[in-house]
Design brief:
Largest sheet: 2 strands, antiparallel
Strand content: under 5%
Structural class: mainly alpha
Number of strands: 2
Distance between the termini: 28 Å
Helix content: 55-70%
Length: 211
């Protein structure tokens, strides 16, 4: 039974997080087979179910997990695998927790005047995981946001700052951006580079432990 599988997994991890379901069940269908039904279950309006799968809210309630946790962890998995979904994600607006972190990054670098554009940029990535820079600017243009060369220079800086904070991550396989919120894989690798002789073990924790 699926519930037995999940309970076994959560005996090894933080029970409040729904990582088991994201990586073992629906996500394996969605990421490997690019199954549209699974993506709708993960990111669409709650209510889809099948014989072996309750509606999303019921499963999240069972493990005391939140949608933001499940959905962001899926994007992190997509970044790990370099997966690009061919359709726009049916996601709701970007969660408040992500907006607060973006505000904090901009305030730290005296760029609070660019918060509207930064939020729009992050929202595009949230809804289009794996989007490239070129596609991002095209989406901005479609939304009526300025995309002059000087503007794009500022937007590129914002992308770099959000990436430095691990809020977003670019995959070298496809040059696509993903909303990762935290990124233990990158953090461990960068720690090894910045500290000669370090294995990165001190920061080599799972995504859920950093969340």
């Amino acid at each position: 039974m699926i519930q037995d599988l999940l309970e076994d997994f959560f005996a090894e991890d933080e029970t409040r997080l729904c990582m088991a379901y994201a990586t073992r069940l629906v996500v394996s269908d969605a990421l490997l087979e690019k199954d549209a039904w699974s993506f709708e279950w993960l990111f669409g309006i709650d209510g889809l179910s099948r014989e072996d799968l309750p509606v999303r809210s019921k499963l999240l309630e069972l493990f005391d997990a939140r949608e933001i946790t499940l959905q962001t962890r899926v994007q992190y998995q997509m970044w790990l695998d370099g997966v690009v979904y061919s359709m726009r994600f049916p996601t709701p607006p970007m969660p408040r927790r992500h907006l607060m972190k973006i505000n904090g990054v901009l305030a730290e670098h005296d760029l609070i005047g660019w918060v509207t554009e930064a939020v729009e940029m992050a929202d595009v990535i949230w809804r289009n995981p794996g989007i490239t820079d070129e596609a991002l600017w095209a989406e901005f243009s479609d939304r009526g946001i300025r995309c002059d060369p000087d503007d794009i220079t500022a937007y590129t800086l914002i992308l770099e700052l959000l990436s430095d904070s691990y809020m977003i991550s670019s995959n070298t396989k496809n040059s696509g951006w993903y909303m990762t919120a935290v990124n233990p894989r990158r953090l461990a690798a960068e720690t090894r580079l910045s500290r000669p002789g370090s294995t990165g073990a001190s920061v080599n924790r799972s995504w859920s432990q950093w969340w």
